[in-house]
Amino acid sequence: MACKKLITVLGATGAQGGSVVRALLQDSSFAVRAVTRDVSKPAAVKLKEAGAEVVAADMDDAKSLKEAFSGAYGAFVVTNFFDHFSKEKEVAQGKRIADLCKQLGLQHVVFSGLENVHKLTGGKLEVLHFDGKGEVEEYFRQIAVPMTSVRLAFYFENFLSVCRPQKSQDGKTYQLVLPMGDIPMDGISVADLGPIVRSVLLNPSEYIGKDIGLSADKLTIKRYAEIMSKVIGKTIVDSKIPPEVYEKLGFPGADEMANMFRFYHMRPDRSMEVTRRLNPDLKTFEQFMVSKKEAFTDL
Question: Is the pTM of this model over 0.85?
Answer without folding.
Answer: yes
